[in-house]
Methionyl-tRNA formyltransferase (Ideonella aquatica), 318 residues
Amino acid sequence: MRVGFAGTPEFAAVALQALLTAGFTVPLVLTQPDRPAGRGLKLLPSPVKALALERGLPVAQPRSLRLDGKFPDEARQGQTALQAAALDVLVVAAYGLILPAWVLAMPRLGCLNIHASLLPRWRGAAPIHRAIEAGDDATGITIMQMDEGLDTGGMISRRALAIGPDDSTATLHDRLAALGGEMIVDDLRRAAAGQALSATPQPAEGVCYAHKIEKAEGAIDWSLPAAVIERRIRAFDPFPGASFTCQGELVKCWQARLAPGTPGAEPGSVLQADAQQLQVACGDGALDLLQLQRPGGKRAPAGAFVQARPGLAGQRLA
C-alpha cells in the first residue's frame, strides 16, 4: 500500500514514525514550509520534515494547495508530486493547510485524518487545549474520512483516553500522538488486507469548535473561579503559558493546586507566601501556585520565587 503523509508538528511526526515502523511505503511527505525559530530566527524544518529527510523520503512544502489561490505555481508543483506518487491513501495529521477537493479525490482510498478529539466534540485547531480547559473527563483520537468541511467527515475509528487531574496539554499531547499512530496503523493494515474502511457519519448533536489558542489568552484573570484558572494553567502548557504580573514582572505559572482560600478576599490578593506555597485568592476559592517561571529563567518551585520577594502576603497580583 502506498501511503502519502501530510503533517507538520511533533504530533504528526509520531504518526509518520508509526507508519514507517509498520513497514508502509511512503512515497511522498507534505509539510509546511520551514519557519524561523530561536533567537537568530534561523529557518528550521518541521518535525515531520526532519524525520522524512532522516528516512530519505521525498518532501514537498507548498505554501498552498489551492490551484486558484495566492501560490498557484506551488500548488501545481504539489499536484504534480501527488500525481507522481500514485497514492492509495493520504494520511493527514495536523498539516495546517486546507486540502481542496482535488486533493481529497486523488488517492484511491481518499484522505484519512488523525484528529485529537472524540468527534464531533472539539472540531478545529486546538482540541487538546480546549478539552482540558473545559474540564472534560476524557478525549481521544478519531480517524476520519476527510471531506471539504472542517473536521466534518465520517468516523472510521474512535478511541477514548482519560484526562487526568494533573494532565497538561504537553502530557496529553504525547499520549494522544502515540494513540493516533497506533490507530492509523491498525486501520491501514485492515485496508491492506482488503477490509473496507466504512465511515460512520458524525452525530449532529454535541458539536464544539476548538478555536486556535491566542497568546493573549494566557493572562490570568483572578476574578474567575479557581477551578477555571487551574484548568487554563494546564491547558496553556506549553503554549502560551498562563501568566500574571508581580511587582512589575511578568511571571508564568505552570502548575497550581486548588485551595479553600479566604471568604471575601479580593481576587488576585496574596493570602499566604512562604517557602512552601504562594496562595492567591480567586473569584471563587484560591490557588496554591506551585511552579513559576521568571522572564529568562527556568521553571522552579514557587518557594524560591517567594524567598526572593519578602513581604508578598497582602499584595495584589495583576
